[in-house]
């Protein structure tokens, strides 16, 4: 049983243009809304926009996001600048989001609007061994390495929570990170675990012919592992959706599949923005966020009446 969860109607993961627009519409529909995530991770944050309808000037992405947050807050949306490390579907149909702080949030509906991860290590062997030991999703591929030694690289919550998850599967887990940029609760969990910590270093190269054989660190250490999980940043939408059986697009298996209402195949879970596929445009993200916010709010109201 989760201890003292906080209750909302709609949880929105991601504070980019899709998440902010969803928050505006869901909050205006008089539902309890919380937006999770750090705005600096939005691909719009460092961008400049000059092709958005009805805006003539070149606008800084940071300014657009700041205005969007204040607009959503005006309608009653709450914001938490924290990472989500897991989503579970409870027996009563409620969705539960686990935060890096250890807190749990409950809601009838969840909107996935975190964008897509474009982070790569950019080291020798990474591209060649993708799918042959190199993975970008612990939740998706962890089971393939059951009983095998693995490594995880990253400074933030995706790497740390991923390493903890792999302890349940792998024979040995190595965590490679330059500095820990995680909540104190998550950091303590890793420090007190059996994870082999490699602090203050990074991956230099990934070695192997037809499969991963070795990971070489900048410190000179060489890790004899069968898999390496590259988790740079917060948990991505695909990681979080993997446990719930959310369907991906059939062509690339990289994007979440939704209908015209931005519904996934799992009741109560919606998606909007880059995670639903290209083009990577703010106009598309805002439009999908609008639909997702309205539909999620309507779903949550029905759920509230039934409970």
Overview of the structural elements:
This protein is α/β, with parallel strands linked by helices and 307 residues long. It has two domains: 6-117 and 237-306, FAD/NAD(P)-binding domain (3-Layer(bba) Sandwich); 134-230, FAD/NAD(P)-binding domain (3-Layer(bba) Sandwich), CATH 3.50.50.60. It is built from seven helices and 19 strands. The strands form five sheets. The chain has a five-stranded parallel β-sheet with strand order 6-3-2-10-19, with helices on one face. Strand 8 (95-99) and strand 9 form a beta hairpin. Helix 1 packs parallel to helix 2, helix 1 packs parallel to helix 7 (282-306) and helix 4 runs parallel beside helix 5. It is globular, with a radius of gyration of 20 Å. The chain starts with 5 loop residues before the first strand and ends with a helix. The mean pLDDT is 92.
Question: Mind sketching the topology for me?
Answer:
Elements: E1 6-7, E2 10-13, H1 17-28, E3 33-36, E4 48-49, E5 59-60, H2 61-74, E6 78-80, E7 84-89, E8 95-99, E9 104-107, E10 109-112, E11 134-135, H3 138-141, E12 149-153, H4 157-166, E13 172-177, H5 184-191, E14 196-199, E15 203-208, E16 212-217, E17 222-223, E18 227-230, H6 237-242, E19 269-271, H7 282-306
Parallel strand pairs: 1-9, 2-3, 2-10, 3-6, 10-19, 11-18, 12-13, 12-18, 13-14
Antiparallel strand pairs: 4-5, 7-8, 8-9, 15-16, 16-17
């Amino acid at each position: 049983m989760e201890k003292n969860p906080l209750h909302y109607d709609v949880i929105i993961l991601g504070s980019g243009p899709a998440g902010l627009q969803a928050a505006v519409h869901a909050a205006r529909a008089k539902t309890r809304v919380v937006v999770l995530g750090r705005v600096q991770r939005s691909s719009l944050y460092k961008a400049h926009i000059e092709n958005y309808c009805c805006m003539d000037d070149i606008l800084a992405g940071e300014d657009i996001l700041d205005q969007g947050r204040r607009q959503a807050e005006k309608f009653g949306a709450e914001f938490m600048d924290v990472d989500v490390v897991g989503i579970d579907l409870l027996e009563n149909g409620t969705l539960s989001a686990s935060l890096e702080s250890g807190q749990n949030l409950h809601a009838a509906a969840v909107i996935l609007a975190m964008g897509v991860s474009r982070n790569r290590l950019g080291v020798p062997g990474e591209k060649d061994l993708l799918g042959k030991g190199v993975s970008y999703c612990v939740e998706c591929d962890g089971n393939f390495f059951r009983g095998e030694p693995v490594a995880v690289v990253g400074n933030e919550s995706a790497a740390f929570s991923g390493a903890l998850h792999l302890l349940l599967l792998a024979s040995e887990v190595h965590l490679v990170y330059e500095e820990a940029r995680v909540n104190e609760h998550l950091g303590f969990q890793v420090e007190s675990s059996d994870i082999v910590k490699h602090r203050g270093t990074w991956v230099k190269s990934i070695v192997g012919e037809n499969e991963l054989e070795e990971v070489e660190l900048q410190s000179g250490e060489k890790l004899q592992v069968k898999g390496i999980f590259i988790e740079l940043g917060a948990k991505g939408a695909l990681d979080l959706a993997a446990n719930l059986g959310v369907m991906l697009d059939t062509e690339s298996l990289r994007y979440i599949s939704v209908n015209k209402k931005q519904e996934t195949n799992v009741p109560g879970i919606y998606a909007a923005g880059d995670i639903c596929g290209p083009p990577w445009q703010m106009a598309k993200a805002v439009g999908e966020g609008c639909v997702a916010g309205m539909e999620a709010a309507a779903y949550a109201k029905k759920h509230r009446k039934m409970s």
